[in-house]
Design brief:
5 helices, 113 residues, mainly alpha
Amino acid sequence: EGRGAQLLGLRARLVRAEVDLGYRSRKRLERAAQVAAEAAEIGLRAGAVRWRIEALSLLAETRARLADRTAHDVAREALALLEDHTAVGLDEPRVRARLQQALTAPPPGAPPG
């Protein structure tokens, strides 16, 4: 599979994850997390930092909504990539908002409020 095909598949996964995030069901959120993780891995293998950052931001948000303990780690990784690389074409305010949401989500098991 060529790099162009990899990136096209990665972008399709990002769209699918974003659509699944629009739903509230746990099953859709779990699928969004799986698809975003796949996209992040493809971005890593293809050296596509911009798309990896996007995928990690979706993964962080999804894991935070699922109360997954790894959400903070994923968000920090994406923020580090943002600091180290210029990501042309990335909607940086939107990505940063997702990451901030993941970082401020209460840890799993924390009492509400």
